[in-house]
Amino acid sequence: MSENRIIYVGDNHGHLNPLEGMGVENFAKRFRASGGWLYVLVNLLSWNFNIRIKSPQDYRKLYDITISTAKELRRSGLIVPVIIGPHPAEATKKIEEGVEPSEVAELMIKAYELAAKYVKLGRAQGLGEAGRPHRPVSKKVMETCTEIMFKAIELAAELDVPLHLHLDAGKKPIELAAQSARKVGASKVVVHHVRGELAYYAAYLGLVPSVPARRNEILAAKRAWDKMVVESDFLDDPRRPGAVVAPWSISKTFRRLLNTGQMSCRQAEKILVHNPAKLYSVKPVL
Ligand SMILES: [Zn+2]
Asked: How many Å lie between the centroid of ligand 1 and the Cα of residue 233?
């Protein structure tokens, strides 16, 4: 990668809202122009689309919206792996609304089994984001979310596909997830939005660190560069423009790391192209 050579960007975790966001085509154009080649599209929350969840089958609507968004994105030439499954905030909300935790666990586990069926049919490429809330919650909420996470890890192992985990802060949740992944032989468990300084620890325990694509986080994750991917966690919410990294800014961030000699071209290509290509079993752009 010389100074002028294009930096290809694989964004390991982002969302799109085709109803209220910037527009799928507009997004694709902007991300492609910045060097984007792969965008891992993760479903949003059911309430982003006013979907009322009463049974696991209601998640079909959320999955189908995500899949049709991915189809539209692919028209631009982007490679778009699709990740589906209820976010831990979905279980948290149900329990806090008064639904029995055991009922909520059953509902979410069935929703994950439904997502696994989509994956088997080739309609989606992975599961998530499952895991644990990062805000303080009651013990029963945390236990229920953990139970759902374990089931999602099991399903990901059976299918041998990536699972995106959303974890609470610190080393303990990473250890818990790694232990469960090792037990069932899940080899593609991704720790989404992991802090740079914990990236190596996650990789050391056999998980795939997905680090927010910010300069300071990437630098803090240096020991994990060979194993990690980066992500924007783009929300496509016009009301929260500064909440996340813009996917089209990732190439600039890496350009700066290269130009200041803080990272080699080979290293950048590993993080942005080869690691995500391997994770999603797709042909690397380079
Ligand atoms: Zn996300």
From this structure: 5
CB 32 within 8 A of CB 251: no
Report how far ligand 1's centroid is from the alpha carbon of 14 (Å): 6
Please indicate, yes or no, if residue 40 is contained in any of the structural domains: yes
Q: How many structural domains are present in the chain?
A: 1
Residue 2 within any structural domain of the chain: no
Cα–chain center distance at 82: 9
Say how many Å lie between the CA of residue 42 and the centre of ligand 1: 7
Alpha carbon 45 to chain centroid, angstroms? 13
- Report CA(248)–ligand 1 centroid distance (Å): 17
pTM above 0.85, yes or no: yes
pLDDT of 113 above 50:
yes
> Two tokens at 178?
């790694």
CATH code (residue 259): 3.20.20.140
Does 180 reside within a domain?
A: yes
Alpha carbon of 284 to ligand 1 centroid (Å): 23
Q: How many helices (H) and strands (E) does the chain have?
A: 11, 8
Residue 74 lies in a domain: yes
Q: Distance from the CA of 15 to the center of ligand 1, in angstroms?
A: 7
Q: Which of 75-84, 136-145, 239-248 has the lowest mean pLDDT?
A: 239-248
Domain that holds residue 107: 9-279
CA of 260 from ligand 1 middle (Å) equals 30
